[in-house]
Specification:
By secondary structure, the chain is mainly alpha-helical. Helices cover 64% and strands 7% of the residues.
């Protein structure tokens, strides 16, 4: 134990519910003609801390009669590959006002759930559009239950009519979110493939440069056919995998990825795709060179043959299975093909 004083930092973070309560108490002060009262100062302090954590409040709806509100925030973050990344978040603290209208409370919570899903998956314009539409839907519900000051809620018939319109709007927002999520998954998957192709091509390029350097000293023969064939098979297999995915992306309903697993898993799946194509191509090359695969009338396969079948192997695993379909038959026959 040293003689230094131990300083404990207090938690300065402020939840949206705490901000809403301070706003409500501040409004009560203003209604009583109290200017710059204690709750005014407390509200400003909480607002500053809230904005520091969540960004600027782009839009907000505050209930007049009770401490309930919804707000949309925008926070700008600096990323390594993106100079300006805007993160939108929907906030809601409505239980004070909706406690006597459970169906309205449930509808608000549905908007919050969809906002969380959209915030995790979407970015840029699609995220902004989705979150703004959800904020508008939530604020309409709050405005509906905030008509009267005292306890009575709107009539059940009127409430059912408002909820029916809300569910229709929520289905429209969810449909837009799903289309945007699928498009975002395609972009993220392609980014992962590009990174995977770079990660696969970089060792090949470095190996070629080192081989060229070693070849000058007679240590390593870069012109050896086996090395060239291996490099061609790996390259064409990876290229075939990329072209296969791009072809399916261009066809409606052919590329299906669960985008709600998250951006990172989708990117990682795309990153592995060139490696999968290269692996199939390499397996095909080994099967041919070990005389386990029936080649038909091909007497002596050359580099163009291996480039073609490697591309097809990477293009589709189904084609690779067809090309490798005779491997099991070749093993165990006891014949050696020449």
């Amino acid at each position: 134990m040293t003689g230094r004083a131990v300083i404990q930092r207090t938690d300065e973070s402020v939840s949206f519910a705490e901000l809403v309560w301070a706003h409500h108490k501040r409004q009560q002060e203003l209604e009583n003609d109290v200017m710059n009262g204690p709750w005014e100062q407390e509200y400003r302090r909480r607002l500053a801390n809230f904005k520091q954590d969540h960004g600027e409040i782009v839009d907000a709806w505050w209930c007049r009669h009770e401490a309930s509100a919804t707000a949309l925030t925008e926070k700008r973050e600096q990323r390594r590959l993106r100079q300006d990344d805007r993160i939108f978040r929907l906030h809601a603290a409505t239980d004070w006002r909706t406690s006597r209208a459970p169906k309205i409370a449930g509808a608000v919570h549905e908007c919050e759930t969809l906002a969380i899903r959209a915030g995790e998956i979407l970015r840029d314009a699609t995220e902004k559009v989705t979150l703004h539409r959800l904020f508008a839907a939530t604020s309409r519900l709050l405005a509906f239950v905030d008509k009267q000051e005292k306890h009575p809620m709107p009539a059940q018939k009127e409430m059912d009519r408002v909820l029916a319109g809300h569910r229709s709007e929520l289905r429209s927002i969810e449909s837009y979110y799903e289309r945007a999520g699928e498009n975002a998954a395609r972009i993220i998957y392609f980014q992962g493939m590009a990174l995977g192709a770079f990660a696969l091509g970089l060792p090949l390029a470095v190996g070629a440069m080192l081989g060229w350097y070693a070849d000058g000293f007679g240590i390593f023969d870069l012109h050896e056919s086996r090395i060239q064939y291996l490099a061609v098979c790996v390259t064409m297999g990876a290229l075939g995998a990329i072209v296969s995915v791009m072809t399916r992306m261009a066809s409606a309903g052919s590329f299906n990825t669960d985008f709600e697993v998250g951006r990172k898993p989708v990117r990682r799946l795309g990153f592995l795709r060139p490696f999968i194509g290269a692996t199939f191509a390499l397996a095909l090359y080994i099967a041919v060179k070990s005389n386990l695969l029936e080649l038909g009338n091909v007497a002596k396969p050359g580099i163009y043959f291996f480039a073609t079948v490697s591309f097809l192997a990477g293009f589709s695993e189904r084609r690779a299975k067809v090309l490798l379909g005779n491997v099991a038959g070749g093993v165990g026959t006891g014949e050696t093909r020449k």
